[in-house]
Amino acid sequence: MPKQTHEQKLLHSPTLNTVLMVEATIKNADESVLTVAEIKKRLPKQVNHTTLMAILLYLEESNKIAVTLKGITWIHNTNPQLRKAITNGLEL
Questions:
Q1: E strand or H helix that includes residue 12
Q2: 5-39: burial string, b at 16+ Cβ within 10 Å, e else
Q3: Nearest to 73 by CA among 22, 35, 17, 18
Q4: How far apart are CA 67 and CA 81, in angstroms?
Q5: For position 88, what pLDDT does the model report?
Q6: 60 contacts 67 by C-beta, under 8 angstroms
Q7: What pTM does this model have?
Q8: Sign of torsion, CA 30 20 55 53?
Q9: What tens-digit pLDDT sequence spans the chain (92 residues)?
Q10: What pLDDT sits at residue 1?
Q11: In this structure, which CATH number among 2.30.29, 2.60.40, 1.10.10, 1.20.58 belongs to the domain 12-88?
């Protein structure tokens, strides 16, 4: 039996509004680490589990969140001074 890719498993893609809603929920959380269950509880609207997992996969692949055994953390930083320091920094 051939392997199914992530896109083949989804019946439909999440809407941009849903992706932005999940992003904002994780980004604005008071705690630094959230579980999937905690994210579901905090979302203003109910999101299908498969859709939420697809969004979390996208956010992880775009380096906006880190997924660990303890949970999910927002890691994306848009500070231009930090980006400049990283770009101009010395490699050890």
A1: none
A2: eeeeeeeeebeeebbebbbebbeebeeeebeeebb
A3: 35
A4: 26
A5: 82
A6: yes
A7: 0.76
A8: positive
A9: 445 555 556 567 899 999 999 999 999 999 889 999 999 999 999 999 999 999 999 999 999 999 999 999 999 887 788 777 777 876 66
A10: 42
A11: 1.10.10
Taking the domains of the chain in order of start, what are their residue ranges?
Answer: 12-88
Cα 87 to chain centroid distance, Å, stands at: 24
Q: How far, in Å, CA of 13 to CA of 8, rounded?
A: 10
- Compute the C-alpha angle 40/72/17, nearest 5°: 50
Q: What is the pLDDT of residue 79?
A: 79
- Token look-up 């929920």 returns 25
39 three-class SS = helix
